[in-house]
Write a structure and sequence with these properties.
The chain is an alpha/beta fold. It folds into two domains: 4-77 and 230-290, Rossmann fold, CATH 3.40.50; 81-173, Glutamyl-tRNA Synthetase, domain 3. Helix content is 38%, strand content 16%. The protein contains nine helices and ten strands. The protein has helices spanning 17-32, 53-63, 79-91, 102-114, 163-166, 181-191, 204-217, 252-262, 275-294; strands spanning 4-7, 36-41, 73-74, 95-98, 136-139, 148-153, 157-162, 170-173, 196-200, 223-227. A three-stranded parallel sheet has the order 1-2-3. Strands 4-5-8 form a three-stranded antiparallel sheet. Strand 1, helix 1 and strand 2 (36-41) form a beta-alpha-beta unit. The structure holds glutamic acid (GLU).
């Protein structure tokens, strides 16, 4: 198998320290495996995309020495592929149109919560639209044992999620006419031949959905590794939304050193003086850490 990894930032603002940690971890894992590292700009969420942010992220990655092995892929240019994937699922009746509004779902979940039952989408439109206009497309998740998805995360260990109980039938095409992240990410990773996904642990909860969707589409499931997320002083995940500042491109070694520390990489007592020294020490330290974690 030829290793192919990727970093998939959403251009909702400049690259910040939290996303640098994911970028670095995915880059190091690819290098430690002598594999390829790709970048995909996840710009399908029109309302959240900030003009110019993607170009800014790509420039910052370059300035930090994180060079991709192939030209970047832009999700906004791949809409036809998402449509094809939806049509493939429509042909096998694995998806259905949903007419529920957010309020209707929230109300029924509140009701379910009061009865102390499931908080997953209740499947209202599984049996038809009940006279409502179609708003979104949902993927039907299996019932019974088949709903339980397990995977072995290379950092976090064995994981289990019951899709029926914890998620419910999930959205692939949103009511606002946007493709859902879950569909785009699975189609893109499969088309790019991604074998290893390394990303932040905030996406752990999406992984079972993505594995199930891979099975529905008949594509391979990659290996997963979710690194600990960076939090702010309130314990919230660092994000562009809660004020994470852009990285200083003039001092890449400072931020890279801090990112390596966050990942628990031991780079020795002398801080590397050049980007080249940093990456060779960090790649060796990553390989060592992975060996320890796997044993
Ligand atoms: N675009 C997502 C983000 O920036 C990452 C998606 C992924 O790595 O699967 O959080």
């Amino acid at each position: 198998m030829t290793y192919r990894g990727r970093f998939a930032p959403s251009p909702t603002g400049p690259l910040h320290f939290g996303s640098l940690v994911s970028a670095l971890a995915s880059w190091l894992d690819a290098r430690a495996h002598r594999g390829a590292w790709l970048v995909r700009i996840e710009d399908i969420d029109g309302p959240r995309t900030v003009p110019g942010a993607a170009e800014d992220i790509l420039t910052t990655l370059e300035r930090f020495g994180l060079h991709a092995d192939e030209p970047p892929v832009w999700q906004s240019q791949r809409m036809a592929r998402y449509q094809q994937a939806l049509e493939q699922l429509q042909a096998t009746c694995l998806v259905y149109p949903c007419g529920c509004t957010r309020k209707e779902i929230a109300d029924s979940l509140l009701h379910a919560h009061a009865r102390n039952t499931t908080l997953a989408y209740p499947g209202t439109c599984r049996t038809g639209l009940h006279g409502k206009p179609a708003r979104a497309w949902r993927l039907r998740v299996p019932d019974g044992d088949a709903a339980v998805i397990t995977f072995d995360d290379r950092w976090q260990g064995p994981q289990t999620q019951n899709l029926a109980a914890e998620v419910g039938d999930f959205v692939l095409r949103r009511a606002d006419d946007q493709w859902a992240y879950q569909l785009a990410v699975v189609v893109d990773d499969a088309d790019a031949g991604i074998t290893h996904i390394v990303r932040g642990a905030d996406l752990m909860d999406s992984t079972a959905r993505q594995i199930y969707l891979q099975r529905c589409l008949g594509v391979a499931t990659p290996e997963y590794l979710h690194v600990p997320v960076v939090t702010n002083e309130h314990g919230e995940k660092l994000s562009k939304q809660n004020g994470a500042t852009a990285l200083d491109c003039d001092k890449p070694l400072d931020a890279l050193g801090a990112a390596a520390l966050h990942l628990g990489l031991d780079l020795g007592s002398e801080p590397p003086a050049t980007l080249e020294n940093f990456y060779s020490a960090a790649t060796a330290a990553w390989a060592k850490l992975m060996k320890i974690r796997a044993s």
